[in-house]
Amino acid sequence: MKKAYVIFATFLLIVFSMFCSNQENENWQYLIKGETLDGWVKRGGDATYSVKEGVIIGTTAHDTPNTFLCTEKEYSDFILELEVKVDTSLNSGIQIRSKSNPDYRDGRVHGYQVEIDPSKRAYSGGIYDEARRGWLYDLKDNEAARKAFKNGEWNHYRIKAIGDSINTWVNGVHAAALQDTMDASGFIGLQVHREQEAGLQVMWRNIRIKDLSEKGQ
Question: What dihedral do alpha carbons 99, 104, 107, 111 form, nearest 10°?
């Protein structure tokens, strides 16, 4: 009898685990479609973007403003996951809930940016307000997060934005927890930072989003 109970309990545990796994994998939308940039639009400077084997590659151009590859669709509440690999001398970032309005600095991209920072400062996962207020949540008091980003390797980012709360993780380490009401929705953007040197690259892959807004469900 005891043996039968253990077998039944084990079966229930397996079923529950499969259910949780299916729930976790439901409703994800991948933002890279084959070998094209359909669904994206470039804004800002003259850096270039291409797709190769499911990887978006951003390449710097000499002395041009920050460049952004932006989703045509806007998102409000969501979970965004992706992997990024960047040249060790190139700063970059992931825009969320961002805007490009003609009446704001001639359409300059602005809004929340989740930092990609391979420098010694190591603020990857911190939250910056691009072209507006500057740092909203740096990592000077989060040593564990500053050590999470691995230079020269693929790094996993998880960004959760719900209401006025934005949380970030880098390689599973919680980096930032911001409460802010400035922007409730906007596009997602992949930044190539302004550089004097041409040919530096930042790459993104496995970009997927779970839309948690009423409209997205």
Answer: -30
Is CATH 1.20.120.450 correct for 29-211? no
Q: Where are the domains of the chain?
A: 29-211
What does the alpha-carbon distance between residue 217 and residue 141 come to, in Å, rounded to a whole number?
36
Model confidence, pTM: 0.87
| Short-list 33, 85, 83, CA closest to 54 | 33
Tens of pLDDT, residue by residue over 61-102, are: 998 999 999 999 999 999 999 999 999 999 999 999 999 999
Q: How far is CA 94 from the centre of its chain?
A: 5
Side chain identity, residue 194: R
8: number of Cβ within 10 Å: 10
What gap in Å lies between CA 15 and CA 12, rounded to an integer? 5
pLDDT, tens digit, 9 for 90 and up, residues 107-149:
999 999 999 999 999 999 999 999 999 999 999 999 999 999 9
